[in-house]
Design brief:
Blueprint lengths: L2 H17 L9 H12 L4 H13 L13 H7 L3 H16 L7 H12 L5 H14 L8
Length: 142
């Protein structure tokens, strides 16, 4: 392979490495090609994919996160003890409702009606995920 081609593959791979974020569709490899690489180094999409193949298989580049961390790990590690107690209280309230077989949105709506819960739906989902993942609860939602 030509030295200039290898140099260009390295440059393109470095650009992609700066902008690509795994598990995010708005920062995918295709996004990197369309919005960054193609503007700096105009090339066809097939050439881009060939360069990515060369970068991964021959030059040893990796386009994924170095350590596999679950997205809730950072959230849970930064939670204050009061917030963890709030999650436990919420989980206990949900368990009292016997959620087995119900959808999560149904339980959320019922809990809001019963207790006047002042918590947005996304935080409710996050708290439920934290309770199941880290605190050992099992809600068996539908």
């Amino acid at each position: 392979m030509n030295a200039n081609t290898i140099n260009k593959v390295r440059i393109v791979a470095d650009i992609v490495k700066q902008h690509y974020e795994p598990c995010r569709q708005d920062r995918s490899l295709k996004w990197c090609y369309t919005h960054v690489v193609n503007k700096l180094y105009p090339m066809g999409i097939r050439t881009f994919w060939r360069y990515m193949d060369i970068a991964v298989n021959k030059l040893g580049y990796e386009f994924r996160e170095k350590e596999d961390r679950f997205y809730l790990d950072d959230i849970f590690s930064r939670m204050k003890p009061e917030t963890i107690e709030k999650v436990q209280d919420l989980a206990n309230d949900v368990l009292k409702m016997q959620p087995k077989g119900k959808k999560q949105i149904e339980v959320y709506n019922e809990l809001c009606e019963r207790t006047g819960l002042q918590l947005c739906r996304s935080n409710f989902s996050m708290y439920i995920n934290i309770a199941e993942t880290y605190l050992g609860y099992n809600f068996n939602f539908k």
